[in-house]
Amino acid sequence: MLVLAFDTATDVATSALVADGVVLGERSSVARTLLEDADSLLAASGLRASDLDALVVGTGPGSFTSTRIGLAAARGLSLVLDLPVAGVSTLDALSAGDGAVYPIVDAGRQEVFVPGPSALRPDELELEPGTVCVGSGARRYRAALERKGAVVPLDDDDRHIPYARLHASLASDFGPVEKVLPIYVREPDAKAPA
User: Fold this and answer.
1) CATH superfamily of the domain spanning 91-158
2) What pLDDT is stored for residue 190 in this prediction?
3) Which candidate, 166, 171, 161, 172, places its Cα nearest to that of 137?
4) How much is the pLDDT for 6?
5) pLDDT at 188 over 70
6) What is the mean pLDDT of the chain?
């Protein structure tokens, strides 16, 4: 099965082309170049969008806007190409790179998204000493986490990135794109006028 996987929920957007579990190509960039990245992956492999069998999209939590970009791209591609889609949590993908890590995504507002999922201030986290923390939130709040006894790998460590190949390896429940829902955790700031 040929799968295009991508996640745009964090500051590093990733995309991967995976055939029967084998990674044919992978890119890291930003959310706004997602479709360009996907096209480049297909072209580099000598394939076309019509060759795809399924899509896998990161569902967050992460940046509201960036998460929406990924889900909108999945929706458009699924409808145009008539492809089933599976959603995978960004936190789950971060954990899949090394199962002995605790994933932490920057949530803005001086908070982080953690498994549960929930949004907390870094000083509210209860971590065992020696817990290895990875992700954009771990990088941003390194000092606070290390004061709690956590271990945060160097900023350039690959474990901080939710690689799309990991999403592809976790995907199992493919179906209509309408069933793939974002994980926002918090209510949006914007409110409808009264």
Assistant:
1) ATPase, nucleotide binding domain (3.30.420.40)
2) 66
3) 161
4) 98
5) no
6) 95
Residues 6+ apart with CB under 8 A from 103: 90, 91, 92, 94, 95, 114, 115, 133, 134, 135
Give the pLDDT of residue 179. 96
Question: Which sequence spans correspond to the domains of the chain?
Answer: 2-90+162-179, 91-158
d(CA 6, CA 25): 12
pTM of the full predicted structure?
0.93
Per-state percent for the chain, helix, strand, coil, to nearest 5 = 35, 25, 40
| Residues comprising the chain, all counted | 194
CATH of 2-90+162-179, one of 3.30.499.10, 3.30.420.40, 3.10.450.50, 3.40.1550.10: 3.30.420.40
Q: Rounded distance, CA 138 to CA 182, Å?
A: 22
Angle between helices 34-44 and 64-81 (to 10 degrees): 50
